[in-house]
Amino acid sequence: MKINDISLPLKGKCHCGSVKFEIKTNIQGLRRCNCSICSRKGFVMGTALIDELVITSGKEFLNTYKWNTKIAEHYFCKVCGINTHHKRRSDPNQYGYNIGCIEGFEMSWIENAPFVDNTKMSVIDNFKD
Ligand SMILES: [Zn+2]
User: Fold this and answer.
1) pLDDT tens-place string over residues 60-91
2) Which of 22, 66, 98, 123 lies 20 to 30 Å from 35, alpha-carbon distance?
3) Across all residues in the chain, what is the average pLDDT?
4) CATH class, range 3-114
5) pTM of the predicted structure, to 2 decimals
6) Cα 41 to middle of ligand 1, angstroms
7) 55 CA to middle of ligand 1, Å?
8) Which among 46, 1, 4, 45 has a CA at the least distance from the CA of 26?
9) Residue 127 Cα, ligand 1 centroid: separation in angstroms?
10) Which percentage of the chain shows pLDDT scores above 70?
11) What is the rounded distance in angstroms from the CA atom of residue 119 to the CA atom of residue 122?
């Protein structure tokens, strides 16, 4: 079994299972990021277009964290605290999602998740609305 042997839609859930989602596209665009929030989360992200990721249950358990420019939206489960996905500030037409949430995915399959230097995505000093 390899990354793209997982049948579509990909099925994802938070740790406690309160939040479930599906992704209509193959696993792609794996990356790590060093912005101030991703550094703390530390997970490897996959990439999906906004309309390719659908919350199938537990929307009411999702909380959103916005900060600084308020463009990125970081979603996490209120019960278990796991970050499931986020709308990207670098491209608000995309979600980054937590690859560790995907059913059947093995973390050991990650051979190459390029490190994206997004320190500029960290807190912006003197940001003006
Ligand atoms: Zn949860």
Assistant:
1) 999 999 988 888 899 999 999 999 999 998 88
2) 22
3) 90
4) mainly beta
5) 0.88
6) 15
7) 13
8) 4
9) 33
10) 93
11) 5
